[in-house]
Design a protein that fits this description.
Elements lengths: L11 H6 L2 H13 L1 H21 L3 H54 L2 E3 L5 E3 L8 H39 L16 H10 L2 H10 L1 H4 L7 H26 L7 H28 L6 E7 L5 E6 L7 E6 L9 H18 L5 E7 L7 H4 L3 H20 L6 E7 L1 H12 L6 E5 L19 E4 L12 H10 L4 H7 L6 E2 L2 E2 L9 E2 L16 H11 L2
């Protein structure tokens, strides 16, 4: 090398000038076409309904079939619009990651006494002599080339996917349905193999014709599930509106009227939550959101990924705690987003995704939260979801981290204990215990169980039931004050050993005094701790 200016990397100036945001804007524009297409399809449906009462016979049947065919042709386009949106948004995200890595490599080279010009040529800075300049220049060039390689790979893949979509548009979006589908007991690995064996046209047929099945199948790509669930989004909202309408009529004063008001308030809160999620799904904000599951029944459930977990090198699954439901989904998703943003700050250019997993019946009241049933019931679904992330992932395996907050930490602990979790690290914050007495009982690699509890988190006072009974019996006796002085210093909580205690066998990371819900506050070191664990640093 001799510190010269040869070996200029191709594409350096192009990547430096690239605007990843413009691709995300283009993705949003394609996604926005779904609204007018749906409106046109709904208008055709209304036209069919208007024809039926006053027109019968062969001509009427033929007209209705023709209009229905036009409607089907329109709705068949919807998954393709979402697919173009995904391709462009993912390209924008990967281009942004490559550009961030390029910037980091250039900054590192310049801080080490090298000069990088506008073409990407690297040479020693005459004003800042560098020992071993040749190796330093070679290392800087290699780092720049790695960033350019990421951008080139993203460009080739996006071009290939768009070319395939163009071909599909000419040939027709869908074909005949596949002859076989996995049974209800099929595991994520089997589901993944089945999907891989289908043609692109068969996959589009399933997304468009059977979105309810595709949207909930663990083991399928996030892109397919997102397309299917976005098709169902309007239907899910209609279900909530129907429930709301049924609850609007007042009843005579009494318990039934009180129950009606409570249920109505719950449905209206769920609608606000669904609308909040819908705004995030429709926005052009980066990273793109993937709707992996949505169910308005009961308190409502949602599974939403920020960034494509099938492509990311690091994936966080966040399980929230007590009272979490569809109404809380936007706020809980924001917590996952905060970890993701901190990951981007700590690891420029690293591809990371974060998933809000709210696919269980979280306790609504303290009386429910005092038991383990809802956590144990959630275990199989969380186990299957994590297995599905592994099965659907492209390229080298991602580093998968599962984080539980409050009662959600018991959900994570019970799933790991009873079923095993396909994860590389478990993280507990604000935990009342995770259902085991030692980290080894969670079946995780040594050193990959982490916990943090803020000094002022009231969860520290959730002593075991037998200890509370002893305190009640000894209150007013000479031993009462001595026991009270031990509050907050014991190693056992309501659901077992304190995962933040030294005797648990896990690893601890610090939290400032931010209470039970402040672990995601920007000035709390716990946020850095969570991000570093996700990145494996």
């Amino acid at each position: 090398m001799n510190g010269g200016t040869t070996d200029v990397p191709a594409g350096y100036a192009q990547l430096w000038r690239a605007d990843p945001g413009s691709w995300c804007t283009a993705a949003t524009a394609w996604r926005g076409l779904a609204g007018p297409v749906r409106q046109r399809a709904d208008a055709l449906t209304a036209r069919i309904g208007a024809l039926r009462p006053g027109w019968s016979g062969t001509a009427s049947t033929a007209a209705q079939r023709r209009i229905e065919g036009l409607r089907t042709e329109l709705t068949d386009v919807l998954p393709a619009l979402f697919e173009v949106d995904q391709v462009l948004a993912e390209f924008g995200a990967r281009l942004g990651a490559a550009k961030a890595r390029l910037g980091a490599e250039v900054a590192r080279a310049e801080s080490g006494g090298l000069l990088v010009d506008r073409t990407g040529a690297v040479r020693p800075d005459p004003a800042r002599p560098v020992a071993q300049a040749g190796p330093a220049v070679a290392d800087a060039r290699a780092g720049i080339r790695r960033a350019l390689t990421l951008a080139g790979a993203a460009d080739r893949e996006a071009a290939a996917r768009l070319a395939e979509l163009t071909t599909a548009a000419v040939r027709g979006w869908v074909s005949v349905p596949p002859a076989w589908r996995p049974g209800p007991g099929a595991g994520p690995a089997e589901v993944s193999r089945w999907w891989a064996a289908l043609s692109p046209a068969e996959r589009r047929w399933l997304v468009g014709r059977e979105p309810g099945r595709i949207g909930r199948l663990d083991g399928l790509p996030a892109a397919a599930r997102d397309q299917a669930n976005r098709l169902l989004l309007g239907r899910r909202r209609e279900q909530l509106l129907v429930r709301r309408l049924a609850l609007l009529r007042p009843l005579p004063a009494g318990p039934s009227e009180v129950s009606r008001r409570v249920r109505l308030a719950g449905v209206e809160a769920a609608l606000r939550g669904l609308d909040g999620l819908g705004e995030r799904l429709a926005s052009g904000g980066a990273p793109r959101a993937y709707l992996l599951g949505l169910d308005p029944a009961g308190d409502g459930r949602a599974v939403v990924a920020l960034g494509n977990p099938d492509r990311a090198a690091s994936v966080l699954t966040y399980v929230p705690g007590m009272t979490s439901d569809l109404a809380d989904a936007p706020a809980e998703l924001d917590r996952a987003a905060r970890v993701l943003r901190r990951c981007a700050a700590l690891g420029p250019g690293d591809e990371t995704a974060a998933v809000l997993w709210l696919d269980y019946d979280a306790p609504d009241f303290l009386t429910e939260a005092a038991g383990t049933r809802q956590a144990e019931d959630a275990g199989p679904a969380l186990h299957r979801f994590q297995e599905g992330l592994r099965a659907a992932h492209e390229g080298p395996p991602a580093r998968q981290t599962v984080l539980g907050h409050s009662y959600g930490s018991l959900v994570v602990g019970a799933a790991a204990r009873d079923h095993g979790l396909s994860a590389d690290a478990l993280v507990f914050v604000g935990s009342p215990g995770v259902g085991v007495d030692h980290a080894a009982d969670l079946r995780m690699p040594a050193g990959q169980v982490w916990s943090s509890t803020a000094p002022d988190d009231v969860i520290r006072l959730t002593r075991p039931p037998d200890e509370l009974a002893r305190r009640a019996l000894l209150a007013g006796t000479p031993l009462g004050p001595a026991l009270a002085a031990l509050d907050g210093h014991g190693e056992r909580l309501w659901f077992g050993a304190d995962p933040s205690a030294p005797g648990f066998g896990g690893r601890r990371f610090p939290s400032a005094p931010h209470g039970h819900t402040g672990y995601w506050d920007p000035d709390n070191p716990a946020l850095d701790g969570m991000a570093r664990i996700v990145l494996g640093r």
